[in-house]
Amino acid sequence: MAACVALFAAGCATPPDYNHVSSQFPPIPAGDGRMIVYRGSEWSGGGQVETIKVDGNKVSNLQPNAFIYLDRPAGNYAVAGSAAGFLRFKLRGNPLKVSLNAGETKYIRLTVKSGFELTTFTTLEDADTAMQVLSKSIFTGAK
């Protein structure tokens, strides 16, 4: 994490993206797994910032075209997002249930769809699909 902050503070023109910072992530702690939570750059949802919740507890906010990672003990988790912009909307639908094994990395995509109401969807993605978005996403922190 300190290396990521140093890289950003060194005067990069843009915040660090996945390709530049992922090799500097610390190893996953023994007994833990890693969840990488990300959003694409799609405009749907009007650029709303998402509040990320794990088991009902807020862990971070996530803007479009950004990602965070969460190291957690192996176990079962419920991951959800809800819009956190000017108007607050409750999550519609059920949180994504994630079974996390020790040493494993799971990729969780948040998608905001607009319509009569904003709706947040969380989906589990395979690494190849996730990398198509993550390679263009900025790192906003580890939680």
Task: Describe the model.
By secondary structure, the chain is mainly beta. It has one domain: Immunoglobulin-like (Sandwich), CATH 2.60.40. The chain is 14% helix and 43% strand. The protein has a 5-stranded mixed sheet. Strands 3-2-5-6 form a 4-stranded antiparallel sheet, with no helix packed on it.
Placed side by side, the strands forming the largest sheet appear as 8-7-1-4-9
What is the second-level CATH architecture? Sandwich
Main beta-sheet annotation: 5 strands, mixed
String of helices and strands: HHEEEEEEEEHE
Computed over alpha carbons, the radius of gyration is: 15 Å
- Annotation, overall tally of beta strands: 9
How would you summarize the topology of this molecule?
Elements (H helix, E strand, L loop, with lengths): L1 H8 L8 H4 L10 E8 L10 E5 L2 E6 L3 E8 L1 E9 L12 E5 L4 E9 L5 E7 L1 H8 L3 E5 L1
Parallel strand pairs: 1-7, 4-9
Antiparallel strand pairs: 1-4, 2-3, 2-5, 5-6, 7-8
Short description, anyone?
This protein is mainly β and 143 residues long.
Keywords:
143 residues, mainly beta, Immunoglobulin-like, four-stranded antiparallel beta sheet, 9 strands, 43% strand
